[in-house]
Design brief:
Distance between the termini: 43 Å
Number of strands: 22
Largest sheet: 18 strands, antiparallel, barrel
Structural class: mainly beta
CATH superfamily: Porin, LamB type
Radius of gyration: 23 Å
CATH class: Mainly Beta
Shape: globular
CATH topology: Maltoporin, Chain A
Order of helices and strands: HEEEEEEEEEEEEEEHHEEEEEEEE
């Protein structure tokens, strides 16, 4: 009781010392994303499909995405006038087996806790805390975050300078996935990130450093620094044709900016995205085949290109994506991958459409004169029910049917021709 009384006393004193802002305009936000469903494959007599179908999302995610996930974010904004504001953000999301479909509570964890302060800088906002950062650079048809610098740090967003809008940030991230790191169960990466937006052009640079990048029983001197750059050109038309949108993306990096780390910190989403097949042969088999994201050398170099967009006609919508990455290794050799996907959508009426998708991915990799590459392709037909809210979010209920053919020589994937069926609900708000 004494501690409670003291807390109330000091709280009251603080309230008297700091003048109340009676004219602050307050607002509250609630936003999030939900994906839930289940898929079954014919090869296993329509038992529940596994993660092997998740590996090649670069050829399109529609009809082959098996994981369930959710996230929910809250924010409280105080607009104080004269460009002064305080905006507090808090987000929780699922943290469990993504293939779980039982109707039971799931584990969750906190993914964002940060604050934005307006008025400290002449323009833009200052932020600090734990947050998803730069994940708006996202190809949603392939579920690919080509930049993802999430972590804990501090920065300034949308500062007007030299005729453009600039972002500056320091962010640190941790790798806790591998217990055989020489420095224990954690490794820390420090990242300095800068981006400049000038009209249709977005240019980004990141510098990275790790105090230690060593593994027990491994005498290789892995990279402790790196650099990378990203250029994005956006258009309000469909590749110079009227209607829709299109984007041209080019990335290049060296050292800690190469392989799976190109355009990313030590994040889970970057760990499992398509990047370097060579890196994915350096896996921890006892830890669920998680790739060693930071096993890159100082002299490793990577280059990545994307073209993607959308065109929306009265009777058909078209969403194409082209992807390519090339990796050149300090120790000799190289690998590459390229992928293509096309999602035609046929609206039937305001409540029903038929979504389709075709995709192809090719991996090129030779290790010790052994082919470790392969090809995959898929065809999906997905009847979809929706109610357009007219305010952005349009929740969808999908009936999934997909033919997929994997021809791979990778140690974590087998050749597999299969037919998938399932259901899925998907929405954001």
């Amino acid at each position: 009781m004494k501690l409670k009384s003291l807390a109330l006393f000091f709280g009251a004193c603080y309230g008297l010392a700091v003048p109340a802002v009676s004219n602050a305009a307050e607002s509250f936000g609630f936003h999030g994303y939900i994906r839930a469903g289940s898929m079954f494959d014919a090869k296993d007599n329509f038992a529940k499909a596994g993660y092997e179908y998740e590996m090649d999302k670069t050829m399109g995610r529609l009809g082959s995405e098996l994981d369930n996930s959710w996230e929910a974010g809250l924010n409280k904004l105080w607009d104080l006038g004269n460009n002064k504001s305080v905006n507090i953000h808090f987000k929780v999301e699922s943290d469990a087996d993504g293939l779980q479909t039982r109707a039971a509570p799931r584990e969750s964890g906190v993914s964002e806790t940060y604050v934005e302060l307006g008025g400290i800088t002449p323009t833009g906002t200052m932020w600090g805390g734990l947050r998803y950062y730069d994940r708006e650079n996202y190809i949603w048809t392939t579920d690919y975050f080509y930049t993802d610098y999430s972590g804990t740090g501090v920065g300034i967003k949308a500062m007007e300078m030299a005729g453009g809008k600039w972002d500056f940030a320091y962010i640190n991230s941790n790798d806790t996935s591998h217990s055989d790191r020489a420095n224990g169960t954690e490794a820390t990466m420090h990242t300095l990130h800068t981006s400049a937006l000038y009209g249709a052009w977005d240019m980004e640079i990141a510098l990275k450093q790790m105090p230690s990048n060593e593994f027990t029983g491994d005498n290789k001197q892995y990279a402790t620094k790196g650099a990378e750059g990203t250029v994005i050109y956006s258009r309000d038309d469909f590749f110079f044709m009227p209607g829709g949108f299109s984007k041209f993306i080019a990335q290049a990096g060296r050292g800690l900016g190469s392989g799976d780390l190109l355009g990313a910190n030590l994040t889970n989403t970057a760990m499992y995205r398509k990047g370097s097949l060579y890196q994915k042969t350096l896996q921890d088999k006892a830890d669920g085949y998680k790739p060693y994201q930071s096993k890159v050398m100082e002299g490793d170099q990577s280059y990545r290109l994307f073209l993607w967009g959308g065109w929306y006609g009265a009777n058909i919508h078209l969403l194409p994506t082209l992807s390519y990455q090339y990796n050149d290794y300090e120790l000799g050799g190289h690998d590459s991958w390229y992928a293509a996907s096309l999602r035609p959508v046929f609206p039937i009426n305001e409540f029903f459409s038929i979504q389709t998708e075709v995709g192809y991915v090719k991996n090129n990799l030779i290790i010790d004169n052994v082919e470790r590459g392969g090809t995959s392709h898929k065809v999906s037909i997905v009847p979809t029910f929706t109610v357009n809210t007219g305010m952005g979010p349009s929740p969808e209920i999908r009936i999934l049917t997909t033919y997929v053919d994997h021809n791979n020589e990778t140690p974590w994937q087998e050749d597999r021709e299969d037919f998938l069926v399932g259901v899925q609900a998907d929405m954001w708000w």
